Amino acid sequence: MAVAAGVGVFGYGATLCIDEACCITESVTRMPTQVKLLAELAELLNQRLPVPIERYFTEDFRLDDAGAGTMLTGHAGAKAMIDHILALAPDVHYQMLDTVEAADRVAVRWRVTGTKTTGLFDVAMMAIYRFAKGRIAEDWGVWSGKPWQTC
């Protein structure tokens, strides 16, 4: 029995051969573009550049911010979310610390920093995103509510 694994043009694959006549090839499609899309979106926010809502969010987008009790939907909801993020501070900055990807979902641990009139803030946020056709369809996010701890 032999196992071979490799990266192809369209994703990762593995072939299991019991003998030369009997081989099974398993192809696993990876979508690193989901994490890249979130990184692109964060960079637009960090630079305070316009966000083309239709490129990043589905028409039936849903934001469920359990910590704030907020539910926003559709492109109008995505726009309201972006406006809220930009209103946090004139220098708001999103830093992607960790990502975990499975199927159509990506979990992200974010560090969010900025300067308000009351001073600096530095907080942690966890979010899980569901993607559909390469765009964000759902966003479940929770803020830590506590300052970021550095050791």
Offer a concise description of the structure.
Helix content is 21%, strand content 56%.
Q: What does the model show?
A:
By secondary structure, this protein is α+β, with helices and mostly antiparallel strands. It is built from 3 helices and 9 strands; from the N terminus they run E-E-E-H-H-E-E-H-E-E-E-E. It folds into 2 domains: 1-30, no CATH class; 33-147, Nuclear Transport Factor 2, Chain: A (Roll). It has helices spanning 33-46, 53-56, 74-87, and strands at residues 2-8, 11-19, 22-28, 57-65, 70-73, 93-102, 105-116, 119-132, 135-147.
- Broad shape: globular
Query: What structural category do the secondary elements indicate?
Result: alpha+beta
Order of helices and strands: EEEHHEEHEEEE
Summarize the main sheet.
6 strands, mixed
Rg value: 20 Å
**How many extended strands?**
9
Number of domains: 2
- β-sheet strand percentage: over 45%
Ranges with pLDDT <50 over ≥5 residues? Answer: 1-16, 27-31
Structural key phrases:
single chain, 151 residues, alpha+beta, Nuclear Transport Factor 2, Chain: A, six-stranded mixed β-sheet, three-stranded antiparallel β-sheet, 3 helices, 56% strand, globular
Topology:
Elements: E1 2-8, E2 11-19, E3 22-28, H1 33-46, H2 53-56, E4 57-65, E5 70-73, H3 74-87, E6 93-102, E7 105-116, E8 119-132, E9 135-147
Parallel strand pairs: 4-9
Antiparallel strand pairs: 1-2, 2-3, 4-5, 6-7, 7-8, 8-9
